[in-house]
Amino acid sequence: MASLGAMRKLFIAATVWLAIGVIAGVFYREFTRAHDFEGTTQLSVVHTHSLILGMTMNLLFLVFTLVLRIDKDRRFTTFFWIYNAGAAWTVGFLAFHGIRQVLGKDFPESLAVFAGMGHIIITVGFVLFFVILNKYVKRWRRKNNVSH
């Protein structure tokens, strides 16, 4: 059985990301309306990034935890925090950039490098996840005598 701590952590993370996604959608609608903004802005994708990268992915990680017990791997907690930090970094910079766009302010070039780091952090999290997943898929195949 998967550890209750890992399942709870993933469930709470998914729930928090759901709340962030819903709030981001409402904020986008109301903030752009309040500023009579009709152009394109990165603020419009904060909602979907939160729901997909945050809520949906944590729910998928929860399923893999239930089925393959990937939480037993010593790297699981590291993966969890790296991935969610990368998602938070990405969503945070999207929101920051989007708000500046609505307000008619430029996004400083010096921050562009930092904005892209969120995707790099998420990628590191995904690589770690796939390393863990590969180990537990192989273990499952051996346990269930599946050759291909």
Structure, briefly:
The protein is an all-alpha fold and 148 residues long.
Structure description:
By secondary structure, this protein is mostly helical. It has one domain. It has four helices and no strands. α3 packs antiparallel against α4. It is elongated and about 60 Å long.
Descriptive terms for the model:
single chain; 148 residues
By secondary-structure content and strand pairing, the structural class works out as mainly alpha
Low-pLDDT runs: none
Gross morphology is elongated
Number of helices: 4
Strand content: under 5%
Distance between the termini: 25 Å
Main sheet overview? none
Record field, number of beta strands: 0
Please, how many domains? 1
**Oligomeric form of this entry?**
single chain
Question: Approximately how much helix is present in the residues?
Answer: over 70%
| H-E string | HHHH
Radius of gyration: 18 Å
- Residue-averaged pLDDT: 95
Keywords: Membrane, Transmembrane, Transmembrane helix
Transmembrane segments: 48-68, 80-99, 111-133
Protein name: DUF2871 domain-containing protein
Indicate the topology.
Layout: H1 4-34, H2 46-68, H3 76-102, H4 109-143
Helix pairs in contact: 1-2, 1-3, 2-3, 3-4
